[in-house]
Design brief:
Length: 138
């Protein structure tokens, strides 16, 4: 880690020296231009790393949103009515057509959703003989 840091600093200061050297022919001091170019590289790297960090954070948020959207989908595993009987997972939506393309027979298959109702009951927690006695006596 320290070796990578030293190599990076050496490259940064060498680039600053290469950029500062031609400016000495224009009458600008080497040390001041070297410091200027070194600072520009550090500032540029800071802004570049902030840009990359924010871009990655946005991509992570987009991935999380896409993952949540996929997890919120209702679906069913259906068997194709063709001779091959291939099973496929199909996302089910109640407000649009539900169809898929069978990977075996390459045909478009519709999925129909059948809604049914059921009566909610309370379980009997007493022994059966007590329930029968209560029913007979009442």
């Amino acid at each position: 880690m320290v070796k990578r840091l030293l190599v990076s600093l050496a490259i940064t200061f060498s680039v600053a020296a290469i950029c500062a050297w031609p400016l000495t022919y224009l009458g600008i001091g080497f040390l001041s231009s070297w410091l200027f170019f070194s600072a520009i590289q550090f500032i540029g790297f800071y802004f570049y790393s902030e840009h990359v960090r924010r871009k990655m954070a946005l991509q992570e948020q987009a991935f999380i949103l896409a993952q949540e959207a996929e997890l919120s989908k209702q679906g069913a595993e259906v068997t194709c009515p063709c001779d091959q009987g291939i099973k496929c997972f199909v996302p089910i939506s109640l407000n649009e057509r539900n169809e898929y393309n069978c990977p075996g027979c390459k045909k478009d298959i519709n999925v129909f959703v059948d809604l049914k109702t059921a009566l909610v009951t309370t379980p009997v927690l007493e022994p059966p003989d007590t329930v029968i006695k209560q029913t007979i006596l009442s």
